[in-house]
């Protein structure tokens, strides 16, 4: 714990100034920060992410099954339409003399309506799948972020002791005092 704190604050005396100060060496502090955040994310987010992905997978599979049922229903409608078409064709032969053109028009309308219905069902299935995938991805992202944030806050709160808190405040007061003193001497030299 002391090593982590020392990485963020320089608690030793500087040779020339003789005061406390922040460690501004980015190369020394960023790897520690990144490793802590990644460790927390991996530790706390792995199980949650697996559960969320499994749940989403089941929902997506359920949506696919529902879409397949809709597809089967559309195929059954197509088969009924074909049977009806055959019936219409047989009736067309019988009524050819009286209204061949009207029957042909009905045949075309029936085929077009069936294909339009199938196309709409296929589009609906595709849109549903895309929507469910996007919603799953967004929910997983949001939950992983929330879990990681809660885990990181919990870890930080459990690591922050009153002694560490007092040391941090004392170090910051020392830095502020030193900076005010340095600014005063710089302004006096200018005058």
TrEMBL record:
Where are the membrane-spanning stretches? 32-49
Keywords for this protein: ATP synthesis, CF(0), Chloroplast, Coiled coil, Hydrogen ion transport, Ion transport, Membrane, Plastid, Thylakoid, Transmembrane, Transmembrane helix, Transport
Question: Pfam families, alphabetically?
Answer: ATP-synt_B
Membrane topology category: Single-pass membrane protein
Q: Name one GO cellular component term.
A: chloroplast thylakoid membrane
What are the recorded GO MF terms, alphabetically? proton-transporting ATP synthase activity, rotational mechanism
| Keyword Glycosyltransferase appears in the UniProt entry | no
Q: Which InterPro entries match?
A: ATP_synth_b/b'su_bac/chlpt (IPR002146)
State where the protein is found: Membrane; Plastid, Chloroplast thylakoid membrane
Coiled-coil regions in this chain? Answer: 64-98
**CDD domains (UniProt xref):** ATP-synt_Fo_b
PANTHER family, per this entry? ATP SYNTHASE SUBUNIT B, CHLOROPLASTIC (PTHR34264:SF8)
Which family does the record assign? Belongs to the ATPase B chain family.
Chain's role: Component of the F(0) channel, it forms part of the peripheral stalk, linking F(1) to F(0). F(1)F(0) ATP synthase produces ATP from ADP in the presence of a proton or sodium gradient. F-type ATPases consist of two structural domains, F(1) containing the extramembraneous catalytic core and F(0) containing the membrane proton channel, linked together by a central stalk and a peripheral stalk. During catalysis, ATP synthesis in the catalytic domain of F(1) is coupled via a rotary mechanism of the central stalk subunits to proton translocation.
Further comment: In plastids the F-type ATPase is also known as CF(1)CF(0).
Tell me the subunit arrangement: F-type ATPases have 2 components, F(1) - the catalytic core - and F(0) - the membrane proton channel. F(1) has five subunits: alpha(3), beta(3), gamma(1), delta(1), epsilon(1). F(0) has four main subunits: a(1), b(1), b'(1) and c(10-14). The alpha and beta chains form an alternating ring which encloses part of the gamma chain. F(1) is attached to F(0) by a central stalk formed by the gamma and epsilon chains, while a peripheral stalk is formed by the delta, b and b' chains.
Protein's name according to its UniProt entry: ATP synthase subunit b, chloroplastic
- Organism (species): Burmannia coelestis
């Amino acid at each position: 714990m002391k090593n982590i704190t020392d990485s963020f604050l320089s608690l030793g005396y500087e040779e020339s100034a003789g005061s406390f100060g922040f460690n501004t060496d980015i190369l020394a502090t960023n790897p520690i920060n990144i490793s802590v955040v990644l460790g927390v994310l991996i530790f706390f987010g792995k199980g949650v992410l697996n559960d969320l992905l499994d749940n989403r997978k089941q929902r997506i599979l359920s949506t696919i099954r529902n879409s397949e049922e809709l597809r089967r229903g559309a195929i059954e409608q197509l088969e009924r339409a074909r049977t009806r078409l055959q019936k219409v064709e047989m009736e067309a032969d019988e009524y050819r003399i009286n209204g061949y053109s009207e029957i042909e028009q009905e045949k075309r309308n029936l085929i077009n309506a069936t294909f339009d219905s199938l196309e709409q069902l296929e589009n609906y299935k595709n849109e549903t799948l895309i929507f469910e995938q996007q919603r799953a991805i967004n929910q997983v992202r949001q939950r992983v972020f929330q879990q990681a944030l809660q885990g990181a806050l919990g870890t930080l709160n459990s690591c922050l002791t009153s002694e560490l808190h007092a040391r941090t405040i004392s170090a910051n007061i020392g830095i502020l005092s030193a900076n005010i003193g340095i600014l005063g001497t710089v302004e006096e030299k200018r005058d």
